[in-house]
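Q: Could you write out the predicted structure for this multi-component system? I'm mainly interested in how the pieces pack against one another.
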Amino acid sequence: MMNYTFIDTHSHLDGEEFKEDLDEVIARAKEMGVSKIFLPGVDKNSIDSVSKVCRSYPEYCLPMIGLQPEEVKADWKEVLNVMKERLDGSIAQGDTVTKYIAIGECGLDFYWSREFEKEQLQAFEEQVKWSVETGLPLMIHCRKAQNELLHILKDYENDLPGGVFHCFTGNQKEAEEYLKFDKFVLGIGGVLTFKSSHLREDLPAAVPLSRIVLETDSPYMAPVPYRGKRNESGFVKEVLKQLALCYQVSETEVAQITNANVKRVFGI
Ligand SMILES: [Zn+2]
């Protein structure tokens, strides 16, 4: 019997990939020790799909709202308007079931394309302002854009409640740049378990456990020994086990510290 539980802070359980067996996925997550699952928004459609899952598993699946940078297209302003209305509505109604716990995932991603670079920058800054206004933390997605991203964040640093740099896979230098934002933590997922990953050395060298939260990014990024398969929230256990090994602490300690980090950033 396990004597600790832990949290998957980033899981797209509203995706098509889970249409057939979400009940089983949730049951397995609970069995593995996952105490809560946070669901990011990515686009307009995800507003409803995320809220549907969270209504089906109240208190267990908790929603975020935001526009993922790869989803920033010509219509980004209209999409953000719809999201902001939902966000304000949820706050005004005191809706407890779909009470948003964070803004995101939002950020910058110039990996595949810079076609909407300007729009991405504006859309991200807008969502940063939502975070300041609502006091909800940011769930940040950043790929090939760290300098541009931190440049925007810096302007709001004092007023921001905090957040997560999700799916961190960078080097020590990049980690240190992020950690300068002292109300923020790094989201660590399945990449940590990949054979080729340098994170097992770089994280203990540059990042205290008090600055890490666990995530799966399901259905993507499945950890070893599930690599290449559909990821699911229960697999976050493999990330926890790997962190315990590379920080040379017990699994219980990783669970306790990462839970405390979630509490500090999300109040949950
Ligand atoms: Zn994501």
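A: Regarding packing and overall arrangement: The chain has a mean pLDDT of 97.
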